[in-house]
UniProtKB/TrEMBL annotation, chains A, B, C, D:
EC number per UniProt: 2.5.1.54
UniProt-listed InterPro entries: Aldolase_TIM, Class-I_DAHP_synthase, DAHP1/KDSA, DAHP_snth_FXD, DAHP_syn_2
Domain of life: Bacteria
Record protein name field: 3-deoxy-D-arabinoheptulosonate-7-phosphate synthase
Domain DAHP synthase ferredoxin-like: 1-66
GO biological process: aromatic amino acid family biosynthetic process
Domain DAHP synthetase I/KDSA: 87-322
Pfam families: DAHP_snth_FXD, DAHP_synth_1
Gene Ontology molecular function: any one: aldehyde-lyase activity
Alphabetized UniProt keyword annotations: Transferase
Signal peptide stretch: none
Enzyme class, first EC level, given as a word: transferase
């Protein structure tokens, strides 16, 4: 941590800062510049926080030098971590496309979806039984009944299932239906109590980025899960909120190389929620894989026009199959497979 | 709802849209312009959603004409709603300043804080027992023990207490300690399961704005609470996230007149979290009251330098008292009291 | 400037950084921490830039410790600067409200506007002769003819005039009509060639904030003007662009106390462009004055419904007069006059 | 255009709106819904603007139905437009990579850069002679001397040159040195006077997106150029400003498919400015081509460590050559060449 003193800071003020650093068993390095004195804290600076110093008189500002996340950082673990979902690996050479509908509607719909997702070559399937909806007056998901339908449809095709957990009180039910990958949605990224709960189990967790979360906050949210003992974490970029109104969100491809540098954990992308319209999905999906994503979450529905939610962002089976073809080509160019 | 057709939309495509509208028992008005045909749905358009139409061929886009929130809207209830917290009214002529520390630390700290908050003229007090923290490695609040200390300190000075609920599983404990006003924090604004829970009780709820939530999403979040039967909702603006890095958040004063127009419920402001530094708080607090806020949440601590969290944003007792003085002046100018 | 080395940086890499610092005649302070080595450059760090070091191997990142602006900073000039426009002072105890229409339309309109602006107690008047419009197909202003009408109307009431310069090639014409205060619009804040031109004259300049400019970029833009020799600069906040769509821009009140701390120059606010609707203006104007603004730019039109541009954001003469009354009250509370 | 009336709008208020529409020689369609009356204006709605109606009593809001841009829209010209720069086509099957240094430094540097850009297979070269810099105290470019060096170096390798114009007064000089493609920088996107000037010539223009410009504003800025008669416009996405601070800007890949739908003109991307760090460029460049970009602007320097500006974002010759290889692979997957 460095503490930058005001232009006219007195010796006494400098001494107070130094004493505070030492009171935490750290050393202090005082560098007297022409315009500012800068004090560095030497030792485990994670014990300190800027607000401890910013209130002292004579201090202009202070800041951490090292990152606040630890277990999830690449410094802690140099090699890529591979997360195994049964016999399917996320984070290795193979790019995993997780296809499926926005929400679990009926057993017929799920059976048909599982069939076409499996035919297209996917090994994992997505689908929501509990839906976070902006309005209390819209369809909120089929709940436990939905989990049951999903499990049944997926098992027939040997697909692992990915579904969202919104409430810690439902965790036991998720474990009962043996949900293979638990998804923490964008609105729950900083639901710290929920993060602590999934940190206590050993199921893989997809942690979606909050729609306005910085990369640093996102890594810290993952650290909550990791600190509990569960290191099976997969980051999922799903579009960020900006000033632009011509599309729902901006898919942040830049975060892909940045996360690959900062963390050893896999990074996947959800181009369906990012763009919000089915016709944008192929371009965005290709961009994500070209930028180095370890996988994708793609919405596809047997009959998009009749989907109960987000109808306009699901690919139909044919569009989905075509997309898988071009993704295979892109993956090959950068030395990966699909 | 209006549906705008593409430039070259065919008669058949127009007919399909009209038929879909009628299938929901609404009427359709077809307006053929020189460049576009626009179809209006006449009747209770809340049954419809844009995604139902955006997937039909020939449709360019569609949009709601009426707002999706209802109970919280001023159309539903023309007069200002006043929320009573015991004998203290929020939303009336009196502007309520809710002072207190960021977190409940010790009984001594709370006793001292309650004393100076009460001396300054406040009728409500704030303080966090459960703290949402970005890092899992920082102080997470004193929990139930904190509620106990808070209740005790406040009762001595006849102060009503405001504190944050982060987890539905703690609601019974909050009721046990008779928390007077339950605060839903910025990170929980779209924790829909939590909103549903506080919708089932009849305690006043302060609903903080998500740090990147639109006014419309915020009103819809309140609608979740209201739809459950609890109409005692108070909106709280606490700064929004923007591109600016010179300060933590931007206090959005514009939302004050806008909310007062859209909803009948009270609107308060938290200038402490918005700015993030104690020296900014007086200017921001004055601005909020001048813009029409019904109250403020202000952090004040008996000894800010030793606060366990957010030390740099708390006012000391003297600064707090001074601020109360100037707020009284501003309130008087616009015909209110403090 | 400090340079933070990677965790595993070698002695040789550290030496290279130190040598680079010394090659600019600055000293280096090397602080070896447990996780990072931090190198401080001691001397006039404005000669250095982060990109000089970020390319060197072993460097994690580097950053300036002192601000890059100088003449406009409060460190350079401790007291408030007062900008004199004839006998009217901006930045002193008196808050200046600059009223007038969005654009100069006709001589009659300007005569009537000047009359009501003067009657309401203003000493300066605004009006656009050259209009930056998003669409090439809309009214672009009356140009030189507009300046003439404006000058004539204002002189009759002894009002100083404020109008926008969009093109360096028009500067001579502005001087010819003796424009009292030159406004640099939001879209021109980083038109560096234009800034250099107004830096060469000695007329007061209102520098509007770019709608997505950081406070730091804004101060640097002012430094361009100041570096040319013209220190008569007035900052004008006019709303920033955010994710919110319920109103055009978010008026950033937080920047007022921040600027007053960082610079000695006056800060005014334009609540009309910030909100975009006339009914929001009184609340926003009061908030700005309460937060410490030195003045306001307010749109008012003899007959808003017939205004040629931004009709929906202009106050009518009566609304304007009422607003002036409440602003007087607010100013008095914080020890100022109107 | 549609005008939505308030819930309680009177017949008289509706009549006033209808009369106003008719006064512009348009027809009105009145649709009386259960909660709102909606009035549609039928005819050339570009004559109208929302602010004309929003000031009338009884009006809730009004909005355009058709887009305000015309010449640049795909409705006006269904096929892709190909912009010819001599014998090089932008917007056809071939993806054009425009390589070169941030700024023109010396003749030796430019000769060397031109050599390696040409060797890598590029047909166009970039380089700045006039540099828009945030600080007035940093290198502002070599000016006319720079254009001369650039022209000379490029001619030796038959490369077309792309360089930024910041000031209308320099246009003649640009024509004198026969600059092949004029770049309008991000800070000039809404410098309307400059847009009008380049609209009067027939040189190809690269119009960079303002760093916080919406797609709609960007298209309107292009319309300024097109309205003057110059239809040789190339859009260039260069990263947008968001709340994220871990990287300079967020490269907006979503705008690529959206622009390809909205306009017939080519779209290129500048991954160097978007990310701000050389190590991010390959991932971003691949993503842009995979998403359908017609070309790229990539910074490359013979010796990045010694570059006079933006040293940390330039690729060295070897990295640049490698990138060209993988881009060729990506282009082939989507049926294009490099």
């Amino acid at each position: 941590m460095i503490i930058v003193m005001n232009n006219g800071a007195t010796e006494e003020q400098i001494e107070t800062v130094v004493a505070k650093i030492r009171s935490f068993d750290l050393d202090a390095n005082v560098s007297r510049g022409t315009e500012r004195t800068v004090i560095g804290a030497i030792g485990n600076e994670r014990k300190l926080s800027p607000e401890m110093f910013d209130t002292l008189s004579g201090v202009e500002y202070s800041m951490h030098i090292v990152k606040q996340y630890k277990i999830v950082s690449r410094e802690w673990h140099r090699d890529n971590s591979i997360i195994n979902v049964g016999d399917v690996a996320i984070g290795g050479d193979q790019v995993q496309v997780i296809g499926g509908p926005c929400s679990v509607e009926t057993q017929e719909q799920m059976d048909s979806a599982a069939q076409h997702v499996s035919d297209a070559g996917c090994r994992l399937m997505r689908g929501g039984a509990f839906k976070p909806r902006t309005s209390p007056y819209t369809f909120q998901g089929n709940g436990e009944e939905g989990l049951k339908m999903f499990r049944k449809a997926a098992d027939k095709h040997n697909l692992r299932i990915v579904t969202e957990l919104m409430d810690a009180r439902m965790l036991d039910t998720f474990l009962e239906y043996d949900v293979d990958v638990i998804q923490i949605g964008t609105r729950s990224m900083q639901n710290f109590e929920l993060l602590k709960e999934v940190g206590r189990i050993n199921k893989p967790v997809i942690l979606k980025r909050g729609m306005s979360a910085t990369v640093s906050e996102w890594l810290m949210a993952a650290e909550y899960i990791a600190a509990g003992g569960n290191h099976n974490i997969i980051f999922c970029e799903r579009g960020i909120r900006t000033f632009e109104t011509a599309y729902r969100n901006v898919m942040d491809v830049t975060c892909i190389p940045v996360l690959k540098k900062e963390t050893h954990l896999p990074v996947i992308v959800d181009p369906s929620h990012a763009g919000g319209k089915a016709w944008m999905v192929p371009a965005l999906a290709r961009a994500a894989v070209a930028a180095g994503a370890d996988g994708l979450l793609v919405e596809t529905h047997p009959n998009p026009c009749e989907a109960w939610c987000d109808a306009d962002q699901a690919l139909n089976p044919e569009e989905f199959r075509d997309l898988m073809g071009s993704l295979q080509g892109i993956a090959a160019v950068i030395g990966r497979s699909l």
